[in-house]
Amino acid sequence: MMKVMLMKLMRKIYNRVLRGARLFYLSLGSSRECPICLWTGHSFYRKTYPNKPGDTHICPFCGSSERHRFAYFMLKDTLDNHAEKTLHFAPEKCIEPWLRSISKEYLSVDLSSANAMEHMDITDLLLKDSEFSLLWCSHVLEHIENDHKAMTELYRVLRPSGLAVIMVPVYGDTTYEDPEIKSPKERLKHFKQEDHVRLYGRDIKNRLINVGFRVEVIQTSDVLTEKVEKHALEYPSTKDIFLCTKPLTS
Question: Most buried of 3, 9, 93, 177 (most Cβ within 10 A)?
Answer without folding.
Answer: 177
